[in-house]
Amino acid sequence: MGKGRVKAVEKRVLDQKLKGSVNVRSGPVYYPTEDEFKYPLEYIYKIKAEAEVYGICKIVPPSSWKPPFGFRQRRKSRPASCNSKTFQLEFNRFLEEQLGKNLKKRVIFEGGDLDLRKLFNAVKRFGGYDKVVKGKKWGEVYQFMSSSEKISKCAKHVLCQLYKENLHDFKNYHSLMNADPAKDCKRLMKRNADVTKPKVEIEEEIDQAYEQCKSDKHGEVMLLCDSCNKGWHIYCLSPPLKHIPPRNWYCLDCLNTDEDTFGFVPDKSLLLEDFKRIADRAKRKWFGSGPASRTQIEKKFWEIVEGSGVEVEVMYGNDLDTSVYGSGFPRVGDRRPESVEENVWNEYCGSPWNLNNMPKLKGSMLQAIRHNINGVTVPWLYLGMLFSSFCWHFEDHCFYSVNYHHWGEAKCCYGVQGSAASAFEKVMRKTLPDLFDAQPDLLFQLVTMLSSTVLQEHKVPVFTVLQPGNFVITFPKSFHAGFNFGLNFAEAVNFATADWLPYGGYGAELYRLYRKPAVISHEELLCVVGKETMSLLGNCCDGKGSMYLKKELLRIYSKEKTWREQLSKSGILRSSPMFLPECPDSVGIEEDTTCIICQLFLHLSAIIGKCRPSVFSCLEHWKHLCECEPPKLRLVYRYTLAELHGMAQEVEKSGDCKTQETKSSQRPSSGTKQSGASNKKEGMQVCQARPAEDWLRRASKVLHDVFSSVEYATLLKEAEQFLWGGSGMDRQRSEALGDCLSKVEGKFNNDPDKVHLEFIDELLKVDPVPCFQSCYLKLKDYAEEAGKLSVKIDFTLSSSPTITQLEQLHSEVSSSPISLTKHKILSKKISSAK
């Protein structure tokens, strides 16, 4: 097996200024061998240590890798509803405004998720719902949506019902939203002119209750937009504010009005041929019909960005969904061009470097996501022209990204290593303070460019690669940007190996801090991958990957433990488990709700109040949920702390088994013994022990007092605070109980190695009840019998017993499986009596 080499290293130019670039050093270029190229994720992991410090690298495939271009240039217009993001925004707005819902429920058809956008467009294509029903065209609708040609009569009926339930009303809403806006403006102006002042105040109050958390509580921290007069809690903003600002403040909706918008603006639909003509004309306009050097193009681009040139508007076909428009790579189910041989087409359909396959390869965490996510697990297409650009950003959830340049002129990419991300953001905020003051979440919007020269002047390392016909990889948390030298066609998607997991945790936290809805639930992904790894059946995580998974599971366990304990101290004592589906074996099987404040997916736990039972908060923002006092709030949880901690430990053992399996090609037996270090790690101290003991003493006192329904009810409610820890919170103690019981049951004679009653008593009272373990109850019975015997000894010795009574009692004590301290006193008494 050969070894991959870095071209820049061979030529001694790595880290040097690339010829023709504008003061930017080159990133590494890799040339994998045929054997190395067979396993993309393994190869990327192999070069990671060297390439990650650049944030970006280029991989040139072997000369034998020549995938046929699979994109069919169909004459197909692109209405707004075809755009996945536009449709999702409009549909969510419809649910919120018309039905009062924040999240849509999952719609299942034929055992999988139904793509409502595809169904909506398909029905529209065949003339609308009425014509499809009248013409019985549900079969044609299904064929338009799917590559499958057959559908049963029952499935046709189900598809019709699903459209009627989910999209029929949305169609009317969509038509109204896309009607002549002038009429709506006139109607709005007329309504505003007729209302009286008191009515305006009422409307404002309603508006204030309808932003973000939909609550009219906590008015003292309500901030009103000085333009639209809508209200926001300062803790709901992105990012949240600590104080109400002294000057005028404007919400993001008002800041993003048409007059003030900068960045990307949706334009008309174009055919590919038309786009080509516009791109060619633009290139000739700037640089004539002759070739232009990289230096010329790059210099002119940054002059435009920095404002020294004229303002330029260019077109960019970006974020085009391959499930709608087709992919540049061959795909199973797509029509094969006649010029491509069938065996070649099939070979590249299954190639691991085919971006349609890469997110779900063995070793990718995204394999646990069963449904499709546009731009993450489903590639996007990018049709570029001269100066069309993508601004500084890093990927959703800090994923890896891979971009393949199918054809056309070069794409110039810049990268900043992930470890310099904080320095990068500081420079951006320092250089563009007005923009960030107006929009603190500016970097989420992908509309901000800053010259690499400025970044390097502030000691932020920037590297560049030029991409004609090859792969560009960006690493987790690495900011990247770039622009096109002319007409080209590219495709990109995300992937996530196990070493990405800690970056994914950072990305999820960033979404939470900026009050942004995440693409996936990071905690759910960890738990699903963790369960798969424990079963030894999953392909997401191998032996070396289990180390990253364990660390991330322990991190969320520690965070969850801290918050649950704080809630208990704050007075939230009630708890109950979540209602769970039967087989949650993949991410997205169920629809997790989100925190009403920070938009975090509430997979592990949530807080719910009596006054607003349909909304939830995360454990951190429970104070902003409603006006209920802590005793009226409830913690709902999916896993006990013991289950979370146990999952992390089992992942480590399973990873060891997989490593052993890889080395020996044999699966280890289930009786493999744990190491002493692992056993020590499993023992954990939960601070619930002390309050549980206090609760137990109070309960014991109440049970002996006169019956009081109020006190009984209070104790039962308070007892719920101990449930989320789980019976496994005393796992180390559980093992000790089992060992102790086995010794007790094996010592029914006068053996000096008997277990002492004092030791058993300490063991039984270490952790809180309830403890649903048979060994606990059995050992407790033995201890109670031994305790009665100890009391009998005291009573007998306090009287004037005969030698016969003492010997009879001595026989009972000797037969007990538990050693009593007073046994020695009894023996001395017998000896002195003789």
Keywords:
11% strand, elongated, Znf_PHD-finger, eight-stranded mixed sheet, DNA polymerase, domain 1, Znf_FYVE_PHD, disordered N terminus, Herpes Virus-1, zinc ion binding, Jelly Rolls, 834 residues, alpha+beta, 22 strands
Detailed description of the structure:
Residues 347-512 form the JmjC domain. The protein contains 31 helices and 22 strands. It has 834 residues and is an alpha+beta fold. The protein has an eight-stranded mixed beta sheet with strand order 1-3-4-15-12-17-10-9. Strands 2-14-13-16-11 form a five-stranded mixed beta sheet, with no helix packed on it. The protein has a three-stranded mixed beta sheet with strand order 18-20-19. Helix 30 (803-815) runs antiparallel to helix 31 (822-833). The longest helix has 26 residues, at 545-570. The radius of gyration is 34 Å and the shape is elongated.
Give the low-confidence spans: 1-21, 75-80, 179-210, 258-262, 664-688, 767-773
- Could you tell me the strand content as a percent range? 5-15%
* Gross CATH architecture of the largest domain: Sandwich
Question: How many domain modules?
Answer: 5
CATH class of the largest domain: Mainly Beta
How would you characterize the largest beta sheet?
8 strands, mixed
At the fold tier of CATH, the topology name of the largest domain is Jelly Rolls
Radius of gyration: 34 Å
What is the mean predicted local confidence, pLDDT?
77
